[in-house]
Amino acid sequence: MAAGGAAPGGGDRGALYTERGANIGAMEIRRVAKRRPVSRDAVKRFAVRSTEASARLERRSVPTEYVRPPEVERLLAERQPQD
Q1: What's the predicted TM-score (pTM) here?
Q2: H/E element holding 74?
Q3: Both ends of the chain: CA-CA distance in Å?
Q4: Is 64 a domain residue?
Q5: 2-12 b/e with 16+ CB inside 10 Å = b?
Q6: CA 38/CA 9 separation, integer angstroms
Q7: More exposed terminus of the chain, fewer Cβ within 10 Å: N or C?
Q8: Which top-rank group of organisms is this from (predicted)?
Q9: Residue 23 domain flag
Q10: Could you tell me if residue 61 is inside a domain?
């Protein structure tokens, strides 16, 4: 099979088959991720969930009643990308 061919048996199953080491004939399968739009809200939820999981792993957490100081809020607002 030529390098970069479609999946055996026809049809595209989202995999790219390439030959690796022609002398032994081994095959390597690479998954090609399909891109799809993600909302800002979904990204925000993912970031919050990831941050919370990281805090649990490091055995640290921020109390739910904690309020950021105004200086920190201002700094974070300055760092946000402008649309």
Answers
A1: 0.39
A2: helix 70-79
A3: 47
A4: yes
A5: eeeeeeeeeee
A6: 33
A7: C
A8: Bacteria
A9: no
A10: yes
> What is the Cα–Cα distance from 5 to 15, expressed in whole angstroms?
10
- Residue 65: phi and psi, rounded to 5, are -85, 0
Residues spanned by the domain of 51: 40-79
Residue 8 C-alpha from the chain's centroid = 28
Helix (H) or strand (E) holding 48: helix 40-57
> Which pair of structure tokens corresponds to residue 52?
């919370």
Structure confidence by residue, pLDDT tens digits, 5-37: 555 555 555 545 555 544 444 566 667 778 889
In a domain, 62, yes or no: yes
Cα–Cα distance for residue pair 67/17, rounded to 1 Å: 52
Q: What is the DSSP string of 3-51?
A: TTBPPTTSS--SEEEEEE-TTTTEEEEEE-PPP----HHHHHHHHHHHH
Residues 44, 50: Cα–Cα separation, whole Å: 10
